[in-house]
Model the fold of this input.
Amino acid sequence: MILHLKSCLPKPGFIMDLYNCIPMSEITRPTRRVDHLQPAHAIPVRRRMIRRWPLILLALVLFYFFAPLRTNILLLGTDDAPERGSVGRTDTIILTTIVPLKPYVGMLSVPRDLWVTIPNVGEQRINTAYFFAESNESGTGPRAAMQTIRQNFGVPVRYYAVIHMSGVVSVVDALGGVDLQLASPMSGLPAGVHHLDGLAALAFVRERSSSDDFSRMVRAQVLLSALFSRALQPAHWTSLPRFVFSLANVIDTNIPIWQWPRLLFALSRALLFGIDSQTIRREMVQPFQTSQGAQVLAPNWDLINPLLVEMFGR
Done:
């Protein structure tokens, strides 16, 4: 019985013999139908980058014009009268700040007789900082004035613009004159709107017989604001080439060309809201006489510093 059962069991190697007997063509693997799928394509990376370029360019333009960066500029008007030689003093000193994002433009006029400490010189009138440096080495006056402002006012200034006051005539005439809006009588002119040519505008700023330094500071700001406003009016854009050419002949500046569109755009927006025109007022200084007999103005920093914080955010 046992022998009979053993004879019924498969012999060793039976499975392999059976597998070898099956033709290979009969062995298949399960597959999925792929005839309905679309052929694969490479991801169009270059095309996507090209589509993004307009957005990138727009972001750069917006950052250029609206970046929350403050730009401080020292405006200096030099009195290059012949009796004082080739180097003039800065009778007009206006510390200007521009914040394009707000937009905000602030102008702070500084009295020329303000008694301050000038680096490498000592205590002197602030309008002599430019004079002393320029007399020793041509071209160093603006930097000396900026260093004096930083040391005494604590306001960092990177750019300057020196305007030779005798050239105001050609600049104003290039725009066909300027319209002054006076809230009160000033320099012999009654309150109201007055159209002045170049010579009249220069006389308006320099008039000294019936006014003091504080009045002259106000008049300088009135003229500057009127010039900016007229130059940015579309009706006078045809005069801009002459205006720019005249301005280039009477102004020395270290403001790079790439900054001009940004600053002018911020200025044009700020004019819609009004320029913040301030001066160091009479109550902020104390007149006194130096040991050499000079009549000067001692700054009261307790009154001046809050104004600096308000305008320049130091």
The chain is about 40% helix and 20% strand. Confidence is low (pLDDT under 50) at residues 1-9. The first strand starts at residue 71 and ends at 79.
